[in-house]
Design a protein that fits this description.
By secondary structure, this protein is mainly alpha-helical. It has one domain (4-142). Helices cover 75% and strands 0% of the residues. The protein has helices at 4-26, 33-47, 55-74, 84-101, 111-114, 117-147. Helix 2 crosses helix 3 and helix 4 runs antiparallel to helix 6 (117-147). It is globular, with a radius of gyration of 16 Å. 36% of the residues are buried.
């Protein structure tokens, strides 16, 4: 199926976003990747001497960028078509570990993903599950396409 990578990546990204948004509203010490994203976007805009939009607009722009960026990243499951579930799990794990280790190195507040051990575990888990979903969706679409 021609659009399988995009559909799979989007599915993984939407699961990641849904999990994050649910956790941040319901669980103490949940990851706050939304805040990290807004902080990153504000820094980029400021460095480009552009005005940082007000909070509600900044949130919408960040969420849109996150969904699109994560969809593109998770679409990489298609690079291992015979092992897309494993590839998705590996991509998700790598993204989760990156979310723990990179913020400090790129000037973002590491507490958003590292506040407590619980925050760290949840951070890795939501990215892992997003990748796993992308891999499963890709595998399912490939099997369906082969059956047709």
């Amino acid at each position: 199926m021609k659009y399988a990578p995009f559909i799979s990546g989007l599915a993984g990204s939407l699961v990641l976003t849904l999990l994050h948004e649910t956790l941040r509203k319901t669980v103490k010490d949940a990851p706050r990747m939304d805040l990290m994203g807004k902080q990153g976007l504000a820094k980029i805009l400021s460095a480009a001497d552009m005005e940082v939009p007000p909070e509600p607009e900044l949130f919408k722009i960040t969420m849109t960028g996150d969904i699109i960026g994560n969809a593109g990243y998770y679409a990489l499951v298609a690079s291992a078509p015979k092992h897309s579930v494993l590839a998705g799990a590996a991509l998700g794990l790598a993204a989760g570990v990156g979310a723990l280790t990179l913020p400090d190195k790129i000037g973002l507040d590491k507490e958003y993903s590292n506040a407590t051990p619980k925050t760290q575990i949840l951070t890795v888990c939501i990215y892992f599950l997003g990748g796993l979903v992308a891999g499963v969706v890709y595998d399912s679409l490939q099997k369906k396409s082969s059956a047709d």
